[in-house]
Amino acid sequence: MISPSPRNVDVLVVGASLSAAACAKRLVDAGLETVVIERKKLPRHKVCSGILSPRGHRFLIENFGPLPREVLHEPTSCTGVTFHFPSAPSIDIDFFGGPTPHLYRKQSDWWAIRRSGVEVQDETSFARLEAGDGGVVVHATHRGRPQEFRARWVVGADGPTSMVVKAVYPEYQASIPWFMVGQKFHQIEACPLDTRYFHFWFHPALGHYTWSHARDGRQIVGVGFDVGHNFDRAHANVVKYLGKRHGVRLGPAQDSEGCGENFGLSLVNRYVFGRGRVLITGQAAGFLNMMAEGMSAALHSGAICGESIVEAAFHGEPAQAVYRRHIASEVRRCSDQWNPLQIAFGRPHEADFWKALGPLGIGERAKVIAEILAFIRLYARFKWGREILGQAVHRLIRGGYDEARWW
Ligand SMILES: Cc1cc2nc3c(=O)[nH]c(=O)nc-3n(C[C@H](O)[C@H](O)[C@H](O)COP(=O)(O)OP(=O)(O)OC[C@H]3O[C@@H](n4cnc5c(N)ncnc54)[C@H](O)[C@@H]3O)c2cc1C
Questions:
Q1: Rounded distance, CA 406 to CA 225, Å?
Q2: Along the 407 residues of the chain, how does pLDDT read in single tens digits?
């Protein structure tokens, strides 16, 4: 079969994600011919709790306008996060500035992409690329048929398992740890967990990431587990615990979904920003904060990526160099949220953990801290301690994170 003639564009963005929408908005506003390709049919489903941080909320309003009702789940907003512990009292931590939207990712991402004004081609999968000095040739498949794009710049906004990252650095993904997360949706018989909050358990016996929240009349129960381990067993263990400890009674799971996550790269400052004319952004680049909140960093890094290309297009400096210079601010924001020195002495999060401890007695506060530290020991096997400390000290002395560690 003869493939159609190549499509020439200024910028090809891979993935119709939030980072892509933010990036495309900058490119389209500057008049650059931009196409977004998305492997799924749009609007597409995305596994996500949909809890947006205040900064992400502001970004959406400022760039795309007021959020329509159809981009929200029920409950439509989230007040904050409740932390639960094996024996310490649970604490509610409210977001600064009040509740934030509970996004329905299928609709919110599609809405943001459309609001950016970019041209989108769905059911089109990035396959590989050939990068040269003057541009990049991208080979994709559209509904199974080969398609070629020739772009001056390519943006990988294609999420944690990014094929664009793989094309640029084939060895990168094998060099980082991977985590699995899965969630099931249950009918509710009785659930005393406050529906205004996202609930998270610092409980080593449940798993390295355990959460629950209400959505559209059902209760989501989610759990992190190691690659190759049994999701159903880990999930059943959490459901049993929720019943015993919190009096949660749920019907059998109706739907189930999961995916792999490149969790922890922002913790150890191991981001990947691309090479030459290929730029990587959003979670593909490693942006994900301590609560696995990635939407606000996806939006901001996407916008910075787009701005860097615009600057390159009109002023001639290589986009990669501009991007690496400008993205340092977003790296600081995201990595600060993991940084033990920033957590102890600064306020890197968008909710005040220390204030939430206030009403507790000294003994209870000590118990909370002790149980968080016991939980963190789950991660000891990754031997990240020295890297975390090294990056925290670098941040303290130099005011930023070590750029030499980025791919
Ligand atoms: C269970 C779970 C719960 C989460 N909860 C929250 C939360 O409450 N709050 C929060 O802020 N974050 C949350 N996150 C993280 C958040 O979903 C991500 O960080 C965020 O969506 C990243 O956005 P992105 O723009 O980088 O890319 P993504 O949203 O990952 O989108 C990437 C896009 O690229 C497309 N794509 C992939 N490969 C190709 C290809 N080869 N060709 C073409 N297209 C391709 C994908 O189909 C997808 O549309 C959660 C994640 C999980 C897994």
A1: 27
A2: 445 689 999 999 999 999 999 999 999 999 999 999 999 999 999 999 999 999 999 999 999 999 999 999 999 999 999 999 999 999 999 999 999 999 999 999 999 999 999 999 999 999 999 998 889 999 999 999 999 999 999 999 999 999 999 999 999 999 998 999 999 999 999 999 999 999 999 999 998 899 999 999 999 999 999 888 999 999 999 999 999 999 999 999 999 999 998 988 999 999 999 999 999 999 999 999 877 789 999 999 999 999 999 999 999 899 999 999 999 999 999 999 988 899 888 889 889 888 899 999 999 999 999 999 999 888 888 888 888 889 999 999 999 999 999 99
DSSP β-bridge partners for residue 156: 14, 280
Pocket test for ligand 1, best of 49, 147, 304 (most atoms within 8 A of CB): 49
Q: Whose CA is nearest to atom 3 of ligand 1?
A: 48
Q: Residue 234 Cα, ligand 1 centroid: separation in angstroms?
A: 23
Distance from C-alpha of 40 to C-alpha of 124, rounded to nearest angstrom: 7
- Domain residue limits, the chain: 7-79+99-174+265-334
Distance 17 CA to ligand 1 centre (A): 7
Q: What is residue 175's DSSP assignment? A: G
Q: Give the distance (Å) from ligand 1 centre to CA of residue 171.
A: 22
State the CATH architecture for 7-79+99-174+265-334: 3-Layer(bba) Sandwich (3.50)
Q: Which atom of ligand 1 is nearest to the CA of 127?
A: 41
Rounded to the nearest angstrom, the gap between the alpha carbon of residue 68 and the centroid of all alpha carbons in its chain is 22
Helix, strand, coil percentages in the chain from 3-state DSSP, rounded to 5: 40, 30, 35
Q: Which amino acids bring their CB within 6 angstroms of ligand 1?
A: 14-19, 37-40, 44, 46-51, 125-126, 157-159, 163, 181, 183, 222, 259, 261, 282-284, 288, 292-295, 298
Q: Is 66 left (phi over 0), alpha (psi -120 to 50) or beta?
A: beta
Residue with tokens 């005040």: 352
